[in-house]
Every structure is written in structure tokens, then in C-alpha cells.
Amino acid sequence: MPELPEVEAARRGIAEQLTGRAVTGLELYRPRLVQAAPGLSLDLLPGRRLLEVGRQGKYLWLVFEPLAAVVHLKLTGQLVARGDAIPGFAAGHPVPPYDAPLPHKSTALRLDFEPDIQLYLTDVRHFARVWLLPADDLMRYVEQLILGPDLLSPDFTFEAFRQRLERRRSGRLKPTLLDQSVVAGIGNIYADESLWQARLHPEQVVGTLSENDLVRLYEGIKETMRLAVPMGGARILHGKAVPPVGEFPFVHGREGQPCPRCGTTIVKLQVNGRGTYLCPRCQPAPVSWPRGTVATGRLAARE
DNA sequence: AACTACTCCTGGAGGC
DNA sequence: TGCCTCCAGGAGTAGT
Q1: At which of A87, A114, A144 does a domain end?
Q2: pLDDT at residue A237 in the model
Q3: A1, A17, A74, A80: which could join A86 in a potential S-S bond, CB 3.0 to 4.6 Å?
């Protein structure tokens, strides 16, 4: 499921291999993929040059004067570029296989670039979306998404992270990390990985974190990104880690396997309805704040 | 404020 | 082999 590292892999591929090239044609296989501002459509693209590609969190955008396309791959989106003139790249959900013949039944869009380059957007579950808007409105559009600092940007400082968490003192850790208005880019896999790095339990209440916990969490997120971004993300298939990926991801999708740090069996639980993997020894449940205590205390105090 | 439930979707896995 | 049900989840929204 594409999170920041997968979307960043797509951004880099597009930036390096497609920027400056003109669109020569396209085919929209699944019209519901695209939501266009009034008066805009993909048909305006042929003849336009790709000027710029950007990303914040899991949102990716391509700027073609006078319009911009904002892309979100959601759970199972995938971008694949092919052509004799470029090395090609693939990023996003690894199903169907990146090297499958294209187009196939999950292909939603093909964009052609000069000279004879194809960029395919594929999505088996049809959740991915492309928004078309005037290029002049792009930054306003991104602002109204209300995203927190991007994990790879200089804005993601320890102080900024601490301040964002400060506003969510009563929330639990994992749902807070998944909230894109807190920080932009973490999804279910890297939330688990970051918490494992930081040795923190996903259900710990944010307001109970010590300064040391906060530092470990910040560093755990950075370390997780440091590992995941160069490989273009974790390869997860149906909730299971796909070999060969070395040891990464360390806990997500590895229920029943030994923790790479201490050998304790990794367990799976549900947090806010999300499958959550952790090492019960490295990430002990916060006994001083058992689940429910905080809410009960707050309710009691209100009366 | 923060949680739950629901929606959008499909294909793979597991049960029988 | 084949049918059936369940499950995975990013983000938006509505309800509690």
C-alpha cells in the first residue's frame, strides 16, 4: 500500500525521466479515476510539457501549464513508465507485477510522452484518484488538504513534531501517526515500523510520552524513512511482507515470526480497526495507562 | 476531541 | 475444482 517511500519513488522516477517531455497522447480506461475542475479534462494534455513534479505526504502532483494533476494512489495504485528512451520505473503497490504486460484489466490510465514513452496508472481496487485543476490553483488545493509536514522535508523538525503531538495529547499513538494533518506520509506499514524502532506501544496515549520517548519516536520515523525510501518502499502483498526484502519491514506483516531485535514472537492486534504488528517485549503495553483509564478520568473530571 | 462505522473496491485466502 | 465468505485498508464523512 503506497505510503511516502513508494510515492517518493514515483516522484523521483517522473522527475528524472519525464520532466520536460511533452504529452503526445493518452487513454483513459477508467473514467472514474479522474475528477476535473470545471472546464478541464485530460484531453487538454496532449501537446503540453511536464514542467514540474511535486509531492507532499502521499499526494503527488504533475504540473503541465496551464493545468495540474494531483494523484493519490490510495491502497493499491501503481505507476509504471516504459519506453526505449528511458530506463523506466515502477512504484506503488506491487500487484499486479510491475512487469506484467500493459495495459491489463486494472489499468486506469495511460499517458504517452515523447518519444514513445508510456506512463501507466494501475489500481486493482479502484480507489486511486487523479484531480485535474488549474495550475494556478495547485498550491491552494494542496493547502486545503491540511497536511502536516512531509517526513522528508526540512519542515519535519523535532520541534514541529513535538508541537503537532502536543495538540493530540489524549489520542493514542498509532491513530495519531496515521493522521495526515499531524505528519504527512505515514501509513499502516510505516506506523508499525516507526513504533517498533522507537520501542513504543501503538496504543500508548500521546500525552504520556516522556521527552525520551518523543525523541525515540522522531528518530524511529526518520530511521524508518531512511531504510524505506531508497528501496522505493516495503513490498507488502496481502498484508504479508514479500521476500526478498532483507529484514525490512521488521514487524509489519510478520505475525508469528521472531522480532529481529530480541527474538520474541511478533503479534498482531487491531488498533482503530487497523491490523497492527508489534513485538510485545520491545513494545510493552503501557501498564500505567491501561486502555480506558484516560477517558474515564476525563469523564469523571467533567462532572 | 476522539473514536467508531461506513463508503469506495477487488482479488486472494481459507473453509467446506 | 468450485463456491462462499472474509479480509486488507487511505481518506472522507457522519454519527456517538
Answers
A1: A144
A2: 58
A3: A17
Residues lining strand B at under 7 Å (Cβ) are A 32, 95-96, 105-106, 124-127, 167-172, 175-176, 238, 272-273
- Over residues A61-80, mean pLDDT: 94
Whether A282 and A261 have beta carbons less than 8 Å apart is answered as: yes
Determine the distance between A274 (CA) and B4 (C1') in angstroms: 12
Indicate if A58 belongs to the active site.
Answer: yes
Question: Residue A81 domain-assigned?
Answer: yes
Q: Is residue A22, in this structure, part of any structural domain at all?
A: yes
> Cβ(A74)–Cβ(A171) under 8 Å?
no
User: Tens digit of pLDDT for each residue in A96-151?
Assistant: 888 888 999 899 999 999 999 999 999 999 999 999 999 999 999 999 999 999 99
C strand bases under 7 Å from protein CB: 7-12
Catalytic residue (choose from A222, A268, A274, A281) = A274
Is-catalytic flag, A281? no
Domain that holds residue A85: 4-144
What whole-number distance in Å separates Cα of residue A73 and Cα of residue A80?
Answer: 12
A118 with A183, same domain: the answer is no
Report the CATH number that the domain containing residue A88 is assigned in CATH.
3.20.190.10
Which nucleotide is the nearest neighbour of A106, by CA and C1'?
Answer: B10
Cell numbers linked to A267: 503479534
| Whole-prediction pTM | 0.91
| pLDDT value at residue A98 | 86
The 3-state DSSP class for residue A89 equals strand
Here the CATH number for the domain that contains residue A246 is 1.10.8.50
Per the annotation, the verdict on A52 as an active-site residue is no
Q: What pLDDT shows up at residue A290? A: 44
* A30 and A90 part of one domain: yes
Q: 3-state class of A116 per DSSP?
A: coil
C-alpha dihedral sign at A133, A134, A138, A144: negative
- Evaluate whether A165 touches A198 at the Cβ level (below 8 Å): no
Final residue of a structural domain among A144, A168, A190:
A144
